[in-house]
Amino acid sequence: MDGGEREPMLALSSDCGKAFTHKAQLVVHQRLHTGEKPYECGQCGKSFTWNSSFTQHVKSHTLENSFECKECGKTFRYSSSLYKHSRFHTGEKPYRCIVCGKAFGNTSVLVTHQRIHTGEKPYGCIECGKAFIKKSHLLRHQIIHTGEKPYECSKCGKAFSQKSNLIVHQKIHM
């Protein structure tokens, strides 16, 4: 190499071996493996892995949606979003787990599913350290620490921290 030229440094994904010329690219790529979704919509709470997806989503709250699902009437800002949504109605599941063969309609659900096989639990409770595969499971768990009981029986008024406990309880009224 001549004066001042440097060979690009490669950063490798420890999960899949994919190479990147910049460490920042690797950090963003790793979200595929971890399921991290750092971009959260302040209006509806939906989270996204990529800033570009988040930006498109935010626009959906303010811009008129122009692609309508013929099956259910739900509208989408982008034709690609309608296409992905259509899998819900057709049952198409093009993403398959290489470990067990289970199929999924989108990649984010597949990534979350694969944690069953890897044992990865990226969402940890800061109160007790218990870890979870999904962020929603962590949020449901954290109610234990707050003492909150948001699920109330309409028959007797008894409250529960978990919806599943309310459902079991309601059977006594039948």
From TrEMBL:
Keywords: DNA-binding, Metal-binding, Nucleus, Repeat, Transcription, Transcription regulation, Zinc, Zinc-finger. PROSITE patterns: ZINC_FINGER_C2H2_1, ZINC_FINGER_C2H2_2. SUPFAM superfamilies: beta-beta-alpha zinc fingers (SSF57667). The keyword Glycoprotein does not apply. InterPro entries: Znf_C2H2_sf (IPR036236), Znf_C2H2_type (IPR013087). Residues 10-38, 39-66, 67-94, 95-122, 123-150, 151-174 form the C2H2-type domain. One of its GO terms (molecular function) is DNA-binding transcription factor activity, RNA polymerase II-specific. It comes from the Eukaryota. Signal peptide: none annotated. GO terms for cellular component: nucleus. Belongs to the krueppel C2H2-type zinc-finger protein family. May be involved in transcriptional regulation. PANTHER family: ZINC FINGER AND SCAN DOMAIN-CONTAINING, ZINC FINGER PROTEIN ZFP2. This is Zinc finger protein 684. It comes from Eschrichtius robustus (California gray whale). The lineage of its organism: Eukaryota, Metazoa, Chordata, Craniata, Vertebrata.
